[in-house]
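re: that chain from earlier
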Amino acid sequence: MRQNLERFLKALRGMDVPVSVAEAIDAHRTAALVGWSDRTLLRDALAVAVAKSEDEKARYFECFDAFFAAAGASRDPDRATAAETAGETLRAADADPDRPAGDLVRMLLDGDRAGVSAAMAAAAGEVDLSRLRLFTQRGVFMRRILDAMGIGDLETEIRSLRAAPDDPAATERADRLEDARERLIEESRDLVERNIALFADPASARLREEFLERMRLANIPPRDFERVRRIVRRMAKRLASRHARRRFNRKDGRLDPRRTIRSNIAHDGVPFRLAWRYTRVERPKVVAVCDVSGSVAATAQFLLLLLHSMREVMSDFRAFAFSSHLEEVDDLLGGRPFEEAAAGIMERIGFRPTDYGRTLVDLEEGYLDVIDRRTTVIVLGDGRNNRGDPRTASLERIFQRAKRVIWLNPEPRTFWGTGDSEMLRYLPWCHVARVCNTLRHLERAVDDLLAARA
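^ sequence. v structure.
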């Protein structure tokens, strides 16, 4: 308990909540009195001991919730017991080299997500994520956690299964383990990023911004939202400056004979001035369709902000949001501060069960006339349809009518088609489908959109 409390006080200081020596002593006494298991009582008691102003109290409560979420702690004592058991299992495996590699492999093959989560929490405790200082340490700590969980044995098992290519059962098992390994890597990345947000050194604002640009948008803590909005607006300014003028993509080395002859009529046809082929790059006409349910909402919010900030370099821009149904949100985005508009969108449309099938039908039936051969349709969402009808025929008709259909999915590619994801059924009707879950991904997607040829 003492070690966890020290890590929590360190996280508080990282969030600019000053903790004096006297307050730290009071916090230790308070924790000893109320115990570590009753989270609500502990939170309120420590708030009395360390938080002073209203602003510091708000940051304290935010830090408290983030700390226990990032540490993998649970209010359920059974899960804590499971984490301790998993830790003992990991240590026993390290102590006995002749023990067959099976615990992590078995849990992954059985789909034991609770066991895997408990093992990851135990491994994170051994690694001590409170030592994180810079976002550049993310890869190092991810590898340490995975090594503590036994990913080396998992990779050995995959290699041995791949050594028998004629055995269909072995190949199928290896495929399942490789998919599970990718999921494990993604989960360890999320865990490390949440802890970096708590413990990283805040001394360098530029380093912090670089980290936020690479951090998954779903993992960005609320206290950094304003900083992220500033980053997005800078990105928009940079992209607008780059694409403000209508440009020509020249094809150097390919002569345009007709333009060459016309431009040299004044020289009696002597090819004094050569003309080269080029393609005019027109300003795009964009229809953005954003999923605003659950964790996808953060990515959708920042994509809408980026596109909304760049209206002047688009010939036309229409914005739609959906969860259970589709609605146009241009009326909310126009003439209001974006923060207010985003809150209005989430209140009116967000956080409902997702229905991609109905959304595509709504888009086809209500707004197909706004889509033509100059229109790029951007769909941002994870494609998880809650087992409903995906209505791929509607997306096919939109695909045939639009210039391009671009699907930006916040989930890693290994997650596409798993569970209730319909991404693999939507893929044939997308010109481009890519992972998009960081600010860098958003900037690259919009840059490619604006640079596309007419």
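Residues 73-101 have pLDDT under 50 and may be disordered.
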